[in-house]
Amino acid sequence: MEIFTRFNRKQIQDRQVDTLIGISKGLIADGKVDQSEAEFLLTWLAQSSLASDNPIIINLLEKLQVMLEDGVLDSDESAELFTLLHSITGDSSEFGELSKTTSLPINKPVPDAKEVNRNWRRFMKIYLLYMEKHYIIFIIIKIYIFF
């Protein structure tokens, strides 16, 4: 990842999600998602995944690759993709009403609580070791400066 991308990661990810919501609204506007629309979305997701490691983009890309691995988007896959894109765009709004917020499907299905707890504990151990190491370095520097 180049330095510009690393430095602007948050802005890039925000723009990607905004663009994904707009693309999703356009794709589901006619009430269905067909083969060419799915292929367009796959291309956009693949290009966007190169610019950042946005989990929404990566997860949707992986799901769409599985749907299109046989080269055909069947009716069940189309309905599933439509439902997924609809959940990304949020509920329908009336004319003149502000768009309703979306509940991005990051945690569907809901992750196992035990696994989340295990990952959290692992993270905290690493964080505490990191902090302890830096605290010791801080003390050494203070001792060095004062003596």
Describe the structure.
By secondary structure, this protein is an all-alpha fold. The protein folds into 2 domains: 107 residues; 37 residues. The protein is 71% helix and 0% strand. It has 6 helices and no strands.
Provide the fold topology.
Blueprint: H1 3-7, H2 9-28, H3 35-51, H4 55-67, H5 75-89, H6 113-146
Task: Name the overall outline.
Answer: elongated
Q: Could you tell me the number of beta strands?
A: 0
Tally of DSSP helical segments: 6
Radius of gyration: 22 Å
Structural class: mainly alpha
- Domain count: the total is 2
**Poorly predicted parts:** none
Quick overview of this protein structure:
By secondary structure, the chain is an all-alpha fold.
List keywords for this structure.
6 helices, mainly alpha, 0% strand, 2 domains, 147 residues
